[in-house]
Amino acid sequence: HLKMDVVQYTESILGKGVNIYILNMQRSHFVWVGEEPKLNDLSVAMKSAPNSQIASVQLYGAGSNRSSMHIAEKLVHKHTAQFFVSCAITDVMAISKIELWLLEHFQEYYNKQKISED
Checking phi first, is residue 98 left (phi over 0); if not, alpha (psi -120 to 50) or beta? Predict the structure, then answer.
């Protein structure tokens, strides 16, 4: 059955309020991270068949900022889902903390999914 849900978080990252919106879909996720509601860029990453290599591309935005693509690749490395990511944060230290937060969030998400399937 088709399942979609949206979750929203506001986290304090390096003293700033960072908004995180996640749309969970069947085998894919849309993640937006930023302080202000602005879509600067959008990247997607997924594992390709048959060799499970990570394929990623920036769909929208300036090519110089690769943080969205990097986050999407990290998430796909840990999970088999497809990830669309938009990150409107430019501070490198904040991005690394957001990346860790997202990795933990999706680990918990998939642990709960596994429990509900059992």
Answer: alpha
Task: Give residue for tokens 């769909």.
Answer: 59
pTM of the shown model: 0.90
For 52-69, the pLDDT digits (tens) are: 899 999 998 877 678 999
- CA 40 to chain CA mean position, Å: 15
Cβ pair 106, 78 in contact under 8 A: yes
Write the burial class of residue 41 (CB in 10 Å: 0-12 exposed, 13-18 middle, 19+ buried): buried
Q: Output DSSP code: residue 41.
A: -
Neighbours of 43 (CB within 10 A): 24
